[in-house]
Design goal:
With 90 residues, the protein is an alpha+beta fold. The chain has one domain. It has five helices and four strands, in the order ααββαββαα. The strands form two sheets. It has a two-stranded antiparallel ribbon. Strands 3-4 form a two-stranded antiparallel sheet. The protein is globular, with a radius of gyration of 12 Å. The protein starts with 11 loop residues before the first helix and ends with a helix.
Length: 90
């Protein structure tokens, strides 16, 4: 079982747009970021990601010619272990 499969995704942080590790862009950051500069984490589906912030933190993966932005460091190893699972679910 992965760390994400063991999460209680009904907790307040996930329900309010938080991520698996409590990281999500601030409301101010998302309000001032154009939609084209936002993404959704493919591992924690629906978690908003500011692309520039993710890239600055190394929270992205390139796979099959596409870039995927991740919400936190915990998502990187999970994506790396089975990228097709997350790409196809997105």
């Amino acid at each position: 079982m992965t760390a994400h499969e063991n999460l209680n995704l009904t907790d307040a942080s996930a329900a309010e747009g938080g991520s698996c590790c409590g990281h999500a862009p601030s409301a101010e950051s998302t309000a001032h970021t154009p939609a084209a500069d936002m993404a959704k984490c493919p591992v924690m589906v629906g978690t908003p990601v500011v692309k520039a912030e993710a890239e600055a933190a190394g929270l992205y993966r390139d796979y099959n010619g596409e870039r995927y932005w991740l919400c936190c460091g915990s998502c990187g190893p999970l994506f790396d272990a089975d990228p097709d699972r997350y790409v196809n679910a997105a």
